[in-house]
Amino acid sequence: MMDDILYSTRDLTVDYATRSGDVHAVDQVSLDIRRGEILGLVGESGCGKSTLGKALMRMIRPPGRISGGELWFDGRNLMTLSEKEMQHVRGGEIGMVFQDPMTSLNPVQRVIDHLTETIRTHEPKVSDAAARARAEELVEKLGIRRERLDDYPHQLSGGMRQRVMISLALALRAKLVIADEPTTSLDVIVEAKFLDLLRELRDEFDLTILMITHNIGVVAEVADRVAVMYAGKMAEVGDVYGVFRDPKHPYTQGLLQSVPNIDLDEHELYKMEGSPPNLLNPPSGCPFHPRCPQAMDVCAVEVPVFHEVVPGQSTACWLYELEATRD
Fold it and tell me: How many Å apart are CA 118 and CA 130, to the nearest integer?
């Protein structure tokens, strides 16, 4: 593995068993997360974003299962680790910020108890006093006054609760933080401050951040690279400026055209026709072809290969497969 790659998935597949059959929520996804970057993972609801985030921590539980692929984190294949070993990786090396901190925090536990319990569970030799000192130092860096540590979650604002969730992810000095829709419950002013905070934390703690969101504006604001998912598959990955300036996949093009822009003269918003496919019975070939304005006959028959089409930008689309053949 390359030294600048912190996490790499190879042909990762996650299935959920239902009465009607298996659902491929994540379907043979290969993705690299580089050290020190903020990678935005976007796509419509139900495309597999959150499932992929949980799979990176091996947190898929029945009726779901990781049915194939490899998870390489910092030189180790996490699929070969025992559950006890994975418990040390979760929190200790990979932290997660969930989208609703009110349901993720224990309502009858004070903030300080959340933090000291996390620290002492993973580091039993740390004393209560040392754990509290570390917690106080951490929350102050996140803009929370020390006296608020004795508050309960319901006494904090939405923005503060998100900061507590981040402090839990950083309490054990995690290398990778997975943030799943972290701005969903925040108003626009708090959201802007939160995004600034993420950038500051990345620089100060040398963090790598995976930002899972449906909000393309958030990705444009904070991410270095973007990965676009559709129907459990990776549609496009590349530098934010490259993808937003010149999207290659028709689905990415449609997503970007659907974003409101007050600088444009058009009064009507663009909308993609159709709906995401039923993953119990996905279409043959490219999963986007029933909605794609550029679909060709081959799109309904064969799945395109995900590959680099321009330097630093990869996609899975027959348009570029055929171009390469002609060249």
Answer: 13
